[in-house]
Write the C-alpha cells for this entry.
Amino acid sequence: MSQSIPETQFAKSEDAQIAYQVFGQGDEHLLLLPGWVSHVEHGWKIPTYAAFLRKLAEFRRVILIDRSGTGLSSPADEMPSLEQRVDEICAVLDAEGVDQIDLLGISESGALCMHFAATLPDRTGKLVLNGTFAQNKQDDDHPWSPGLEDNEKFLNIIEEGWGQGISARIFVPSRKKDADFIQAWGEMESKAATAKNVRAILAMTVDNDVRPILSRIAAPTMVVHRTGDRAANIKGGRYIAEHIPGATLVELEGNDHLTWEGDTDSVVDAVQKFLSA
C-alpha cells in the first residue's frame, strides 16, 4: 500500500456529512471505529497509528469513519444516540455499495459496534471488540467499573487537559514520558474534537449500556483485551465474551489502552486470524 494519505470522502446521514476513507487490499471490507474521537487525515501523521492502519490494510479493505462531532465530519451540538450512529455507518456503507461488513470496535466504539451487530444482523459479518466494555458505570453487575465520582473527576481531567496530550498520558503508560509522542497526540486531540464535545462524548459513554442486547448478537465475535488495560478493565472484556453467544476471548499482556501502542502485532495477528477463519 502507498504511504500517501487516502482520499477523504463524505456521505450524508440526515443533516450530517460523515467523513470517511477507504483503503487496503481485497474485496472484503472491515469497518474500523478507533475510539471516542478521531480525525481520518491527521491520524496518519502519528507513526504508530499509521502503521496500525497499514497492517490492517494488508488483509482487508478498511473503511475508517469520523463520526459526527469528531474529525472532519459535521459538528454536533448534541452527541448522537447509538441509533443515530448506526445510521451514520449505514450511510457510509450505502455510499460504498457495501451490504455486509466485518466490524472492529475499539474502546468506546465497542458499544456502537455491538449495537450495530444486534440490530442489523444481515449487514454484520464478523465482530471484533478490542479494549471495550458493555457499560462504564459501577453497579452490582459491574463492580469494577468507575463510580459516579470517579467518572466526574475523569471528565474534568480530560476536559481541562484536552489538546495537551492528556489522553496519551492516561491511556498509554508505556509512553507517558515520550515528549514527542505526547505533543503529537495533543495535536490530534485538538483536531479531533473540542473539549466540550469530548466531555459530551465521555458523558454519553457513561450512560450507554448495551448489556441487554448482548444475547441478540448472532455474528461470530472475538473479544481482544489486554489484561492490564488502564482504561477498560479486563473484567469488562470477560463479561462481554461470556454474554455474547459463542464469543471467543483473547487475553493479551500489556497495559496500554490504545491498540496501536505496545504489542500491536499480537492484536493485529489475532484479528487477521479470526477474520480469515
The chain is about 40% helix and 20% strand. Residues 8-148+210-276 form a domain with the Rossmann fold fold (CATH 3.40.50.1820). The chain has a mean pLDDT of 95. The two ends are 23 Å apart (CA to CA).
